[in-house]
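Much of our argument rests on the idea that a fold can be written as discrete symbols. In the encoding step, the backbone of a single protein was reduced to a row of integers, each denoting a local shape. This step matters because it turns folding into a mapping between discrete strings. For completeness, the protein is quoted in full, as a sequence line and a line of structure tokens:
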Amino acid sequence: MNSKAEKYSQLIKTKASSFGFQNCGISKADFLEEDAKHLENWLKRNYHGEMKYMENHFDKRLDPRLLVEGSRSVISLSYNYFPEEKIPSLDNFKISKYAYAEDYHEVIKDVLREMVTELQQEIGEFSYRVFVDSAPVMERSWAKKSGIGWVGKNANLITKQSGSFYFLAEIICDLELIADHETTDHCGTCRKCIDACPTDAIVSDKIVDGSKCISYATIELKNEIPDHFKNKMEDWMFGCDICQDVCPWNRFSVPNLQDKFKPNHQLRNFRKGEWKELTQDLFSEIFRKSPVKRTKFSGLKRNIDFLAQSEDRKP
């Protein structure tokens, strides 16, 4: 059994690399005991703000065997999204790098499904489900457990080789595989992410008050943006990369090779003037396949108006 588990584990990692994943690690599908208390405390402090879905499926979040019946292993994977070129920020409202191009949920799920099809041709049929930032899966916890990286002070998963500009994905399956070991934490005494956050959302080491986060305000929040965000959003209209941009480990980021993650050419030509004149039709055209469509036109317009008002109030 061990030799088969070893063989399959190695095959999965080789296959993941050939399909463009940066890293692949394996964990035993088990109850995330350490995370249970952290999640409970985080929710109690209301750090999830209006993200009420975080309160749902508490047990499933912590035990993949409740999510995928008969599961034995969690295969964690990372997929680079660091862009070759950044969208100009001068006289511009900013979009998080992960949203420059096509929606990662669909792109990576397609890659995963193709990869699993090939694996089944070589291994034989096995039961599985794939996840890309979908369903109640504690992605960072599983990726940390599988040795892909460590959780930084900004609560992002960081790797020595390539920083943190990557998506996480999982295959939860009933294969018996060899579990990997966790890696060590390499943030040391660095506080760059904590000090750079304009809204003080990083409340302590590895703990983020989501309700203070610019990404939350511009994406998750459905109501009006609270006044305490005024003059603190640094022109971010969708998401925020500040805590990643200042992280020293991200000097090792290299451009991704996925054609579908190439920046939308229309975004390169927009500046504040064009964004302020954005219409529903133009929004639908530009963001048809983009994660930005999550905010809907009304949400993005709200963000742009909020930033524009803050500009008008500046002395």
The CA atoms of residues 102 and 260 lie 6 Å apart.
